[in-house]
Amino acid sequence: MDTSAEARRAWTSDDHAEQSIAARLCAGCAGLAGCRRFVEDHPDEWGVYAGSTDRERQPGRPRQSPRAAGAA
């Protein structure tokens, strides 16, 4: 996983392209399942969680399956 300052900013960026990069970097993270549970319990969180962007988690948008979220 890229842990440079630039990569870390992508998780909280307002730029959708940067968020998409961060979401792909989530693949293979040991904390992915816990992160997914957190954001399901706290749906108002913004930024990237468990391989999905806040835009992807908006009501009415299809959620990524755990398998799709882990694929990159």
Can you put this structure into words, describing what you see?
With 72 residues, the protein is an all-alpha fold. It has four helices and no strands. The chain is globular and about 30 Å long. Mean pLDDT is 79; it is low at 65-69.
Detail the topology: elements first, then pairings.
Elements: H1 5-10, H2 16-25, H3 32-41, H4 66-70
Please name the defining characteristics of this protein:
72 residues, globular
Q: How large is the share of residues in beta strands?
A: under 5%
Give average pLDDT, whole number: 79
Q: Describe the global form.
A: globular
Biggest β-sheet description: none
Q: Determine the N-to-C terminus distance.
A: 12 Å
Q: Helix- and strand-based class?
A: mainly alpha
Radius of gyration: 11 Å
Percent in helix:
40-55%
Low-confidence stretches: 65-69
Q: Give the oligomeric state of the chains in this entry, treating copies of one chain as homo and distinct chains as hetero.
A: single chain
Listing every helix as H and every strand as E from the N terminus to the C terminus, the arrangement reads: HHHH
What's the total number of strands?
Answer: 0
Total count of helical runs of at least 4 residues: 4
Short description:
The chain has helices at 5-10, 16-25, 32-41, 66-70. By secondary structure, it is mostly helical.
